[in-house]
Amino acid sequence: MKEIDNKNIKEKCFTEELENGMKVILIPKKEIKKKYVIWATKFGSIDNRFIDARTNTEIFIPDGVAHFLEHKMFEQENGVDSLYVLMALGIDANAYTTNDHTAYLFECTDHFYEGLDELMDYVQHPYFTDKNVEKEKGIIGQEIGMYDDDPGWQLYVNAMDCLYEKNPIKVDIAGTVESIAEITPDVLFKCYNNFYHPSNMVFVAVGDFEPEAMLEEIKKRLLPKEKIGEIKRIYPQDKKEINKKYAEKEMEVSMPIFMIGIKDNIKNYSEIVKRHIAIEILLNLLIGKSSKLYNQLYQEGVLFVRPDLDYEFSKQYAHILISGQSKKPQEILDRLVKEIEELKQNGINQQDFERIKKKLYGDYVVEYNDVANIGRMFAADYVKGINSFDYIDKFNEVDEKYAQEILNEVFQIFKEKFKDEFNFIDDENND
Q1: What DSSP designation does 399 have?
Q2: Shortest CA distance to 283 belongs to which of 201, 340, 199, 350?
Q3: Of these residues, 16, 17, 70, 250, which one is catalytic?
Q4: For the whole model, what pTM was predicted?
């Protein structure tokens, strides 16, 4: 087992690739009562075209299959729902689907090995029939209806549609009522047999345990399977430019909400961690809680709460999202454009840069105080080809010069043509 010792934060992780190809990541946390386990597969909403590993044929699946599978995995042939089994043990269990992975997890202080038994049993024994698949379509159809009525989610979906023309990230993770109607047990089994193979999965455990002993506990619960090659996914080529400049949707909200999207075209993915850190610093410099612009907008009553600042990325997409509440979203966009241009022209203030960099570094370190945060972080980063320790190590490499280079590259924007570079969504109150 490979040991990775991060001396900056005095944390260790142990990694092992098993004979079946599954990656195991173990993070021991001595004297922590809670244990956390997350088992994730590199199968998300964007993976709707791939080459079947066994037949070598191209498979095109309906939108929403990854999310549908997540729902169905808890149901067992004997009629038992594994989620309720875990809850009855006092174990906090859940699952989720993202653009690039699906994860099954639990957190507990007691009955850990009973929880491990249940998790590794239901994930390895899928049960799909015509009857239970049809039943699930109704349940997920209701869930899709809830998403349709959620202003925040609709804002995000519309933003993706503005940013991307062909990339499947623009499709709702749950799919549509029309797309899930096409899902059959055969479709689910094909996806399960490809994407839920250990070669495509990562198992992360965090807590007070001996890594070697924990590794053996995991191995003895795995069904024997031979390692297979990496799944060949097929993604459409999207243009570098945005798909469209503006989208607006009227919904019943107490305050209009907006989202500004900036598409990022990554040239060198090997530097993605360093790039991510730099962008986070820049966003906080521009319109973060302690920025000049945010305080001006707040005092003037243009922006009522601190905006959400996000950078989402994988090898298939990358974008910045700035979202918040305002009755004057256009003014926020105008002034943000002005602030970007001033920062480009005047350069980054060293004192402000170091202050925000130090704050963000502290935020990353704090994540290691919670076993659930650690587990999710390592699983999500692994799917993206990253070891989470890389963020801690790369902070020292991000200086003002590099941040300025990223500013000039990513925020390629001029006041007179900002609408050619930005996406803007405004959900208005239709009262």
Answers
A1: -
A2: 340
A3: 70
A4: 0.93
